[in-house]
Amino acid sequence: MIGRVAVSAAVLAGGVVLYRRRLRGPVLTWGATAEEAAARLPGDELLPTADIVSTRAISVAAPAAAVWPWLVQMGPGRGGAYTYDWIENLFGLGMHSVDRVIPELQGLAVGDVVPVSPNGPGMRVETLEPERALVSRSEDGRWVWAFVLVAEDGGTRLLSRNRISTAGSSLGARLGMLAMEPGSLVMERKMLLGIRQRAER
Beta partners for 125? Predict the structure, then answer.
C-alpha cells in the first residue's frame, strides 16, 4: 500500500514538473506573441503580485467598434460567454451565449458588478475605456480579468489577460488551480473564437 502511494506521488510530482517546464507556457499564452505576454496591460496594477498570469490573444478582421459590444454584454444572465455553454451550465452558471448585440446590455459602467456564479464573488468593473480596455476585478480581490483591444492592419488584436492570486490557499487548492489551467485554455480559446466570429459577421 505504501509503495503504491509513493509511486502515485512520484508520478503526480513528475507530471507537475513536466507541465510547468514544457506545457504551461503555451497553455497560458495561447495566441499571444512574446511581446504581448510580457507587456504591461491595463489592470495589471490592480493585482501586481499575481501567482497565475495568462495572456491569450486573437486577431479579428473587424474594427474595435465591432468587437467592443460583445465584450460589454458578457456574463451569465446577460450575453453569455460565447464558449461551450453546456460545460458552463454543468456548474449551474445559467450561461446562454447570444448571437446578437443586445442594446439594453450596452450601458455597462465602472462600479457595476457582473455575476460569475451563483455563490461566488462577482466581477466589479474597474476600467472602462470604450473600444480599448475593459477590466474587472473579483469582489474578493483575487482575480483580475482584462480585455484589451489594439488596432492591427485594419482589424483588431483582442487580448485577454487573467491575473489570479492563490495567496493563503492550501496546497491542494493550488494544485487544483494548476490542473484547471488547461481547461481554462479550452474555454477561453472557444470564447475568443466566438467573439471573432460574431464581430466579423
Answer: 136
